Amino acid sequence: MTTFAIVDLETTGNAASKGDRIIEIGVVLMQLNGEVIQEFSSLVYPERDVPPFITSLTGIHEDDLLDAPLFSEVTDEVYHLMKDSYIVAHNIEFDLGFLNEEFKRCGYPPLHNPIIDTVEMARILLPGSASFKLGQLSEQLGLGHDQPHRALSDARVTSDLLNYLLHKLNQLPERTLEHLLKVEGKLKSEWRPFIRKSIENNRYEQTSPYPFDLWHGIPVKRIPQEEVVSNPPLPPFKKWVEKAYKHTDGLKKLIHNYEIRQGQEKMTEMVFEALSEQNHAIIEAETGTGKSMAYLLAALYYSIVNNERLLVTTHTNSLQKQLLEKEIPALEELFGRPIRAVLYKGRNHYISLVHFSYELEQSYQDNYDIALTKAMILVWLTETTTGDIDEIQLPSNGKQFWHKVSADQSKKTVELEEGKESYYHWAEKEADSADLIITNHALFCMDLISSEQRLPAYDRVIVDEAHHLEAVSSRYFGIQLNYKELQRQLTQFAEMFQKRNYSKIPLSPSVVTELERAQFSVDEAKEELNHLSRYLFQRIKSHKKKDKTKSDVGRIQFVLDGKEVGFRSTANEMCHRFLASIKKLAIAMEKIHDQLQLADQLNEDYRIPILVSRLSSQIELTKSIRDQLVDYFDMSDSNEVKWIEIEGEGATNAVYLFKEPLNVSEILRARLFNQKRSVVLTSATLSTDASFDYIRKVLGLEGNVEAVEASLPSPYDFGRQVKVMVPNDFPNIKASPEEYVEAISEAIYSVATITKGRMLVLFTSYDMLRKTYHLLKEFIDPEEFMVFAQGVSTGSRDRLKKNFQAFDQSILLGTSSFWEGVDIPGDDLSCLMIVRLPFQPPHDPVQSMRDQALKKEQGNPFMERSLPHAIIRFKQGFGRLIRSSTDRGVVFICDQRLMEAKYGKYFLSSIPDVPVSYRSTRELVDEIDEWL
């Protein structure tokens, strides 16, 4: 009978090699049938201090360890408990590394038993999990976890997790298990015997409860047949919308604790009127209005009654998720039939099973990350009905592998998958019959600018989070290229010319010659790209300081303008040498492509069409690279902004090239507002100084383009729920930047002491955020406050938010993306601190060039662009604090310009009417204490 020794350790830190020691050990001995036969647990005296963070995490104090045995006193028992078993841990390298270090210290040989890492196993068998941390997995699976970060409790939960995962393994289809055997050898965990046992079980009894289909030799979850939906007659709109909002069997019945909100019904009526009368509309709906529910009611009614598909585009994925998973399902009963809403994405999001099947056959040459990626995808395919890779989190190198197997590899010239055996075609089919297509601003803008249709046809669109439309369209109407991505593409090209790809395919000598020529052209292109990147990097780094600025992520920026003729001329020449290599490569690929097409007619080898489709895709890519770079260093077009960014401390060829149009308003007017029958722009922040003039101007809603407009106030009682506080004693940031950071840090600590943490601090600069974080860490005891910082603490925005909410007394420092789209309702957030008014950096390349253009037109860049942009950003930041009618808190703004500059009043007039205190920091802290 197989035995597992499931182990968990608590330690003084992460590195045994640097002297960190074990402070607690827990071992659970379990048999394959799940029966626990023995447990062991002990505190361990570490012979060194226990850091406060570890005490805060585990609850183990130094006093608890004074009478604990040394590890040498428990070594013999632990060693003999584990030596004949599979060793299992949640992150095996950590636990086994520490144990073997201690065994070595005590004169015992290291253990080299077969191992299972439940992190790796969970990544493969639960690929859709949001997190693979033990606590989150136990919560997700309902395993129960009495004492997180205590060794025996963690070991018990790991044993429950192992049981769950082995059961899940048994439920997989036999063919999936056989494919897993192809990659198992490259993984950490030695689970071949368990895969083989599952295959055996599968043969003699159908263990899988799920229906599967076989597509291209790979088991996939059966996609349910689309229901035929009939449209029951709906009453006239006015009568129907009144029922939805005011009757007991309307929204009150469908949504728990639904409250009628001022402005929500009015917004529904306005959106419906705009859609029906083919008008454009600008609707600002402040926090709490319920704008997404309001426009969904109007859009769905219009779509169903008129049998016309509508488009909704958002900036953030979280809003798309909210629409699809929460709000649209809640509304179905009002329409008397299922709502057909589809999330639509580009080809590169969907897997091509033909290409994935091909790559599975090449598994002998995989590294660890690729093997892990393949294993994750194999299991995910038994669960997904969309084939959309955003459903799982691939390892970093797995994203490179994804480029080889996405539906982007098979398009236009060579279609390898059709109809029911292609997720992308399935998505297109669903979109064709949808009431509502939901997409993001990126794909929306690509569709507007591209000659190739990226979205299904539509005439009416609702643009939510519309304050982002200018920035996103500017980015997608321009170009973004970087050295690392170009090198990745060239490496992927080179893989195509490996002779092993063509083994057993009868090739003429001329094709073999072209393969060698293409490989030479790739090497040449890489070399030329290296020369160009190194030249750009070194010239920009050595440039005078006044010509360079820093981006918000710390990259050095250099704007290309009419000056520096010699620099541009040399760069242009080097760029064209690179493009000449790319052209030679494209010619060689076209010859190979044509020869393979001929071979395909004479041979029935499944690999040939795959190679042809990849070559076709790559030829297209070489054309795209040439189109984007051919005139990059040419300054003849004055309507474009071009700049280069380099990593100041990075590799000497980490170079990024950007180009954006100086003015997107004309493009949007021509491609969007003049083409579509109705465009509804909505957001919580569209107006400045009670006017929509700014948003109209930047988005092209001027001249002969008409649009109705409305501003719907928030239903919250901000006067009662919020106080704004501005300290009058902060040092001058320009004269004393270091003192300013000290003042920020002191203010954060003083206010956090009153609010018991529960504090979000918004920065406009990563540099200042980092300095503040490191200063706070010097004097804040982790047992008092946990401090998390974007870009410093590990994890995504959502992960940082969850960590912030998980601790009772925590402080979260954020910049850029934290200014909006982050909901921390209720008691989790009591204070929002805004460090500086959110003006764009004056030297931002696009901003500075647009300012110059405005000056030439006798305009005022500050009043017409910088100030309105900052006000909209400020309103977004302010909106983080109050997310419900019961929230209450303080907005602490550390920028005296709000009270002393002439333009400060515009910021204050843009937010609801709330009490404002302008006093010393000490007095404000006392006021917060009294008020809260």
UniProtKB/TrEMBL annotation:
Record keywords: ATP-binding, Exonuclease, Helicase, Hydrolase, Nuclease, Nucleotide-binding
Segments passing through the bilayer: none
One MF annotation (Gene Ontology) recorded for this entry: 3'-5' exonuclease activity
Protein name: 3'-5' exonuclease DinG
Pfam families associated with the record: Helicase_C_2, ResIII, RNase_T
Motif DEAH box, residue numbers: 464-467
Family: Belongs to the helicase family. DinG subfamily. Type 2 sub-subfamily.
Known role: 3'-5' exonuclease.
Binding site for ATP: 285-292
Keyword Nucleotide-binding included in the entry's annotation: yes
CDD domains tied to this protein: DEDDh (cd06127)
Listed EC numbers: 3.1.-.-
Organism: Halobacillus yeomjeoni
